[in-house]
Q: What sequence folds into this?
């Protein structure tokens, strides 16, 4: 059966579909939401090289839409799966009703869901309008409108708090790997577009491997302040003028009260809803973290013909997602043609 | 001084080394806000380094409010570590004189401050019953068996 089912229409799924179409293999790209693009749709400039996310999606989607080999199914979910590779029988739940499809292999590219910081009550998310997530900030910067939600004015100071929903036994124990990199990138963008805005990053450890290290260097040169601490509380000041972050600067051991106009929570990645049930339908395993489990090397699972790509197996940046999308496509082609 | 083996063997604190020194404990500590010499994070760091100074008075400033315990992202239980340090300090006779004095009084008259003649007079004028100065035998035995009396 020379056909591949791809679950997830984010950047990874799009890349896998594109690669398979170029190899002349028929694909079904299944997306749960109404549009392709996944988490990337909410972003503008991406780290480290500043690639423009909307263009990245648009160009690739245009290519797969014009390809005769690819079928895009939005608003669709996997219902049941039977059979073995290379003869999977899949029932899809589409907006028009159930649809049966045969497929030679399956690529799981379900990605991640951004962490919702509502459980962290001491950070005031949901209570203070000026405590926002990095995703909201990225959207504001993309649209060229950096404002405080409380008064609609441009903030004179922005403070990032790292490791929100990551490296914390109360939420998720793993490091989401990309938060440091996007925070440093966003800090640079703020400094570039709003030079008078004071930017501070409160971090536990800065993890900016490879080229992102250059962004980190650039941020320091531009005057972004880095303090090593995980804050204790965030309180709204009188009349919403500013927020006060209470933290211990762990490098000198002193308690600090930092006044800032906008607090940005650098949220991590969590497994998307329905990961467990999808795992049981596909007969593959999940890690303790809740993401799908790879076997031996990145794109393989314990089931022959079922491949993983991108953030489905754990938090990953865009570059890695693109690489894994193509890698899964290549392994699928080897399986089907070999 | 190195109290790590004791922490693991006696107090059963096994995830001691999970601490990544983020400062959440000290940042939210109500004591640190007014007495900066009491810093939970540096106490933990000193314990981890095996260099804790048990004669440090600041160890005894904890109010056991449990904020650090609740917020610790690594569930290291900072409060228990501080308590383990004070307990060890007490056993080794390194507790501050005021703490020792209080406990001596406890063994002597069953309360942590002595009954003054002033208090006796006042109680008498108010028609309150006289206070008894007795320490139960059980209490004395417990103090002996736990090594409590040795720390004084």
A:
């Amino acid at each position: 059966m020379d056909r591949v089912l791809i679950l997830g229409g984010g950047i990874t799924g799009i890349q896998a579909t594109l690669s398979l179409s170029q190899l002349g293999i028929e694909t079904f790209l299944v997306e749960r939401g109404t549009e392709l693009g996944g988490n990337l749709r909410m972003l503008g400039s991406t780290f480290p090289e500043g690639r423009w996310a909307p263009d990245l999606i648009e160009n690739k989607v245009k290519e797969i839409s014009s390809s005769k080999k690819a079928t895009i199914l939005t608003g669709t979910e996997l219902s049941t799966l039977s059979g073995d590779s290379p003869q999977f029988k899949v029932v899809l739940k589409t907006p028009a009703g159930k649809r049966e499809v045969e497929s030679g292999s399956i690529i799981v590219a379900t990605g991640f869901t951004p962490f919702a910081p509502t459980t962290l009550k001491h950070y005031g998310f949901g209570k203070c309008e000026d405590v926002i997530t990095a995703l909201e900030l990225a959207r504001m910067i993309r649209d060229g409108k950096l404002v405080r939600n409380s008064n609609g004015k441009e903030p004179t100071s922005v403070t990032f708090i790292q490791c929100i929903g990551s490296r914390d036994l109360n939420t998720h124990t793993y490091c989401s790997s990309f938060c440091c990199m996007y925070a440093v990138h966003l800090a640079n963008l703020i400094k570039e577009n709003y030079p008078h805005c004071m930017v501070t990053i409160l971090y536990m450890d800065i993890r900016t491997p490879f080229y992102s290290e250059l962004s980190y260097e650039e941020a320091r040169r531009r005057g972004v302040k880095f303090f090593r601490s995980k804050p204790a509380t965030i309180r709204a000041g009188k009349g919403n003028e500013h927020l006060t972050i209470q933290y211990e600067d762990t490098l000198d051991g002193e308690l600090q009260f930092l006044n800032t106009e906008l607090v940005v929570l650098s949220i991590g990645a969590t497994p998307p809803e329905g990961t467990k049930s999808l795992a049981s339908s596909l007969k593959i395993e999940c890690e303790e973290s809740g993401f799908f489990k790879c076997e031996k090397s990145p794109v393989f699972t314990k089931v022959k013909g079922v491949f993983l790509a991108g953030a489905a197996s754990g938090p990953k940046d865009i570059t890695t997602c693109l690489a894994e999308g193509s890698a899964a496509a290549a392994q699928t082609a080897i399986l089907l043609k070999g | 001084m190195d109290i790590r083996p004791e922490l693991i063997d006696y107090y059963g604190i096994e995830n001691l080394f999970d601490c990544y020194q983020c400062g959440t404990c000290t940042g939210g500590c109500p004591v640190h806000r007014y007495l900066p010499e009491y810093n939970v994070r540096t106490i933990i760091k000193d314990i981890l380094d095996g260099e804790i100074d048990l004669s440090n008075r600041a160890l005894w400033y904890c109010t056991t409010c449990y904020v650090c315990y609740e917020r610790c992202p690594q569930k290291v239980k900072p409060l228990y570590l501080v308590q383990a340090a004070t307990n060890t300090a007490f056993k080794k006779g390194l507790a501050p004189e005021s703490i020792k004095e209080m406990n001596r009084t406890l063994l002597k008259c069953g309360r942590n401050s002595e009954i003054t003649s002033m208090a006796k007079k006042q109680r008498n004028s108010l028609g309150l019953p006289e206070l008894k100065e007795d320490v139960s035998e059980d209490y004395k035995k417990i103090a002996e068996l736990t090594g409590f009396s040795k720390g004084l």
Observations:
- The radius of gyration of chain B is 19 Å.
- The domain at 4-91 of chain B is CATH 1.10.1060.10 (Fumarate Reductase Iron-sulfur Protein; Chain B, domain 2).
- Chain B touches chain A at residues 20-24, 26-29, 32-33, 36, 39, 41-42, 67, 71, 73-75 (CB under 8 Å).
